[in-house]
């Protein structure tokens, strides 16, 4: 048995039940929260939490870099599928006429992709130009024309989009701008050998979101310390999980780790041993 659907009164209990059924630890499984359940009132309207737990497939990698490439590829595939399901019209515009996105990760047959005389600075400049053009065309196609500027600092490329229709580019719960960021990151890696982190911001969305994440982190820490029970946060993009982890890493009384598979990967916060 490689996959189970587990149900219980809380997400925590459902996860533990599913792990026991598979006979694996949390780090050996991909966990997807299907439903967080509902407490109900006086026993009426109560709904069980439901989780899907799949045993992880063990893959062999020749080089450490292969792991990173595989993770990027899986993330792109998952975020595209998620986008196509929730925003079909937007997804069509975001993905249209972008062959680079279809083949984000270069294969062995693409050896000429990085020729022997490859120049890192030229590659970075090409990446910036490609992503800027891509984001500009997407905003135009989506009916939210935007001016795109870029800043490079601390091994990070920050693409800033300014539009009078910023809400369209952000999307509900930031899903559109997060998808654009994942695809932009993937596109950059087509041009640059070294790892460059990419941030796509629309207006001041990232700053406002960072404040929200800090608040979530602080409230979660208080809850875990008070109850001594782990808390499973809602699925978040990797860079947002890192923000919460960074905030909580300052508190030595708790620890964090991620579980599940992108784009449904989530953070678990628990008491430190």
TrEMBL record:
Keywords: Cell shape, Cell wall biogenesis/degradation, Chaperone, Cytoplasm, RNA-binding. CDD domains: KH-II_Jag (cd02414), R3H_jag (cd02644). Residues 207-273 form the R3H domain. It holds the Pfam family KH_KhpA-B. Gene3D superfamilies: 3.30.300.20, probable RNA-binding protein from clostridium symbiosum atcc 14940, R3H-like domain. Its main location: cytoplasm. PROSITE patterns: R3H. The keyword RNA-binding applies. GO terms for biological process: cell wall organization; peptidoglycan biosynthetic process; regulation of cell shape. GO terms for molecular function: RNA binding. The keyword Lipid biosynthesis does not apply. GO terms for cellular component: cytoplasm. It is found in: Cytoplasm. Forms a complex with KhpA. Belongs to the KhpB RNA-binding protein family. A probable RNA chaperone. Forms a complex with KhpA which binds to cellular RNA and controls its expression. Plays a role in peptidoglycan (PG) homeostasis and cell length regulation. Has an N-terminal Jag-N domain and 2 RNA-binding domains (KH and R3H). This is RNA-binding protein KhpB. It comes from Trichococcus pasteurii. The gene is khpB.
């Amino acid at each position: 048995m490689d996959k189970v659907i587990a149900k219980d009164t809380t997400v925590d209990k459902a996860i533990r039940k599913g792990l026991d059924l598979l006979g694996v630890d949390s780090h050996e499984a991909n966990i997807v929260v299907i439903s967080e359940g509902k407490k109900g009132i006086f026993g009426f309207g109560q709904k069980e939490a439901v989780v899907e737990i799949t045993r992880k497939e063990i893959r062999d990698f020749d080089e450490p870099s292969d792991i990173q490439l595989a993770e990027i590829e899986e993330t792109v595939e998952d975020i595209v599928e998620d986008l196509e399901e929730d925003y079909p019209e937007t997804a069509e515009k975001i993905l249209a006429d972008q062959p680079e996105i279809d083949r984000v990760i270069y294969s062995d047959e693409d050896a000429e992709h990085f020729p022997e005389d490859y120049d890192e600075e030229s590659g970075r400049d090409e990446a910036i130009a490609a992503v800027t053009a891509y984001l500009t065309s997407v905003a135009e196609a989506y009916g939210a024309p935007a001016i795109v500027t870029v800043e490079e600092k601390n091994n990070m490329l920050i693409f800033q989009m300014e539009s009078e229709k910023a809400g369209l580019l952000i999307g509900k719960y930031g899903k559109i701008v997060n998808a654009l960021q994942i695809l932009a990151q993937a596109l950059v890696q087509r041009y640059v050998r070294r790892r460059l982190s990419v941030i796509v911001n629309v207006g001041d969305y990232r700053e406002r979101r960072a404040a929200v994440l800090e608040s979530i982190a602080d409230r979660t820490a208080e809850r875990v310390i008070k109850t001594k029970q782990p808390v499973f946060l809602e699925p978040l993009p990797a860079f947002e999980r890192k923000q919460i982890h960074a905030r909580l890493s300052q508190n030595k009384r708790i620890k964090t780790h991620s579980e599940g598979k992108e784009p449904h990967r989530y953070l678990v916060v628990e008491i430190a041993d």
